[in-house]
C-alpha cells in the first residue's frame, strides 16, 4: 500500500482472484470512490495481512472488501483486526465451487461480523455497491449517485421488457 489515501481496501488471497474482485473496483470507479487492491493471505502471510489492515486504517480506509476461496478466512481475520466494516466475497475455486467459502465467510462468531455477499462476480459487484452505500451515509453526493444508479437499473429492466414484446 502506498501512502495515498483510499476510501476502500479490496483484499484477496491470491492473484487468481483478481478477475472476480476487480468487479468491486469497477463499481467503486463508477461512483468515484478511491480504493486499493492488495493480495495478502490469512494463512500464508498473517503478519503482512495484519500490518496492511492497520496501515489501511491509518490512511483513512473506511470499508474493507475481502474475497477468498476455499477456507476463506481472510475476511474473518480482517474483521478480527479492525472495527471498520468488512464485506466478504466468497470465491469459487475449490471442489465445492464456493459453497465452502460461503459458509466460512457467513458463519462468523457473534461479535465479529462480516457482511457476506453472493459467490463470485455478482457478489463482488454487490460488495462494491454496498461499500458505496456505507460511505453514502456521510456523503450526500454519493447518496445522490446511488439514487441515479437505482433509477438506471429500473430503466434497463423496462427497456429489456420492451425489447421482448412484439
Give an overview of the whole structure:
By secondary structure, the chain is α/β, with parallel strands linked by helices. The protein has one domain: Rossmann fold. The protein contains 6 helices and 5 strands, in the order βαβαβαβαβαα. It has helices at 18-30, 46-58, 74-81, 99-106, 121-136, 140-164; strands at 8-12, 35-39, 63-69, 86-91, 115-116. The protein has a 5-stranded parallel beta sheet with strand order 2-1-3-4-5, sandwiched between helices. It starts with 7 loop residues before the first strand and ends with a helix. The mean pLDDT is 94.
Please provide a brief summary of the model.
The protein has helices at residues 18-30, 46-58, 74-81, 99-106, 121-136, 140-164; strands spanning 8-12, 35-39, 63-69, 86-91, 115-116. The protein is α/β, with parallel strands linked by helices. The mean pLDDT is 94.
What is the fold's blueprint, element by element?
Layout: E1 8-12, H1 18-30, E2 35-39, H2 46-58, E3 63-69, H3 74-81, E4 86-91, H4 99-106, E5 115-116, H5 121-136, H6 140-164
Structural shape: globular
Q: What is the radius of gyration computed over CA atoms, rounded to a whole number of angstroms? A: 16 Å
- What is the count of structural domains? 1
Low-confidence stretches: none
CATH C-level class is: Alpha Beta
CATH architecture: 3-Layer(aba) Sandwich
Helix- and strand-based class? alpha/beta
Number of strands: 5
Number of helices: 6
CATH topology: Rossmann fold
How would you spell out the order of helices and strands? EHEHEHEHEHH
Q: What's the overall average pLDDT, rounded?
A: 94
Strand order of the largest sheet: 2-1-3-4-5
Q: Give the N-terminus to C-terminus distance in angstroms.
A: 54 Å
Determine the fraction of residues in helical runs and give it as a percent range.
40-55%
Strand coverage percent: 15-25%
Question: Sheet bearing the most strands, described?
Answer: 5 strands, parallel
Amino acid at each position: 500500500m502506498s501512502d495515498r489515501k483510499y476510501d476502500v481496501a479490496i483484499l484477496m488471497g491470491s492473484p487468481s482472484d483478481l478477475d472476480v474482485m476487480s468487479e468491486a473496483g469497477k463499481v467503486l470507479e463508477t461512483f468515484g470512490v478511491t480504493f486499493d487492491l492488495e493480495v495478502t493471505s490469512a494463512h500464508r502471510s498473517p503478519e503482512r495481512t495484519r500490518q496492511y489492515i492497520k496501515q489501511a486504517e491509518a490512511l483513512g480506509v473506511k470499508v474493507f472488501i475481502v474475497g477468498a476461496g476455499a477456507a476463506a478466512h481472510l475476511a474473518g481475520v480482517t474483521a478480527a483486526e479492525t472495527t471498520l466494516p468488512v464485506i466478504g466475497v466468497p470465491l469459487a475455486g475449490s471442489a465445492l465451487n464456493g459453497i465452502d467459502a460461503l459458509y466460512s465467510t457467513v458463519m462468523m462468531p457473534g461479535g465479529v461480523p462480516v457482511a457476506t455477499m453472493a459467490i463470485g462476480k455478482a457478489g463482488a459487484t454487490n460488495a462494491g455497491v454496498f461499500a458505496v452505500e456505507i460511505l453514502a451515509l456521510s456523503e450526500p453526493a454519493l447518496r445522490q449517485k446511488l439514487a441515479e444508479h437505482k433509477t438506471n437499473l429500473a430503466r434497463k429492466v423496462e427497456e429489456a421488457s420492451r425489447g421482448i414484446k412484439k
